[in-house]
Amino acid sequence: MKPVRTSRRRFLATSLAAGAVAGTPAIAHNSQPYTLPEEYLPVVVTLAAGFGPGEIHVDPNNFKLYWTLTDGKAIRYTVGIGRPGLYHAGEFTVGRKAKWPSWTPTPAMIRRDSSYARWKNGMPGGPDNPLGARALYLFNAKGHDTYLRIHGTNLPRTIGTAVSNGCARLLNEHVADLYDRVPSSGTRVVLYEVGQPVIT
């Protein structure tokens, strides 16, 4: 994926997303002050190769997620991804969406971190939930839930890092913007391989 950037100022001035990002302080619940690097802000880019509109493409090598628009353009967000050994490349579809989703750790997560056991029956949605403000649930070609998510986070410092249990995470304000753009089901999602050039 070789995007050509357009002006970030132009994006913030003209995109409906600017209102969503700037106007939702209620979902920025991190109690410790944190200034997101400017290069992590959403920006409209022009892709060097054609992609159909209405798709999600995750480039793990650069910690970027692209929501494709018309005319070869896309909104580029910065994400955190699964840590080594837990990132799963592949092609999926969005099977479900949720606002302030609940979270239940998988048995594998509990084996890796016993502190998750207290939530084996689920954690309600809210500002302390690791899925953050919104979640897109990724299903496989057979229509089964893969337990992979594109979701928000209450840990904004993890954006731009490989730290999760396999999901892609965005700042809460950014995932809320993406969530509003993505249809309820059927959206194509491509998670590219780590360490491999992204084919464009």
Labels describing this entry:
200 residues, alpha+beta, L,D-transpeptidase catalytic domain-like, 10-stranded mixed sheet, 4 helices
General description of the model:
It contains four helices and twelve strands. The protein starts with a strand and ends in a 9-residue tail after the last strand. The protein is α+β, with helices and mostly antiparallel strands. The protein is globular, with a radius of gyration of 16 Å. A ten-stranded mixed β-sheet has the order 1-2-5-4-3-12-7-8-9-11. The longest helix has 10 residues, at 172-181. The protein has a single domain (3-191), classed as L,D-transpeptidase catalytic domain-like. Strand 3 (56-59) and strand 4 form a beta hairpin. Helix 1 (8-14) crosses helix 2 and helix 2 packs antiparallel against helix 4. It has helices spanning 8-14, 16-22, 107-112, 172-181, and strands at 3-5, 43-47, 56-59, 64-68, 73-78, 81-82, 90-99, 134-139, 145-151, 162-164, 168-169, 188-191.
List the helices and strands and how they pair.
Elements: E1 3-5, H1 8-14, H2 16-22, E2 43-47, E3 56-59, E4 64-68, E5 73-78, E6 81-82, E7 90-99, H3 107-112, E8 134-139, E9 145-151, E10 162-164, E11 168-169, H4 172-181, E12 188-191
Parallel strand pairs: 3-12, 6-10, 9-11
Antiparallel strand pairs: 1-2, 2-5, 3-4, 4-5, 7-8, 7-12, 8-9
Helix pairs in contact: 1-2, 2-4
CATH topology: L,D-transpeptidase catalytic domain-like
Percent range of helical residues: 10-25%
CATH classification class: Mainly Beta
Helix run count: 4
Bulk shape: globular
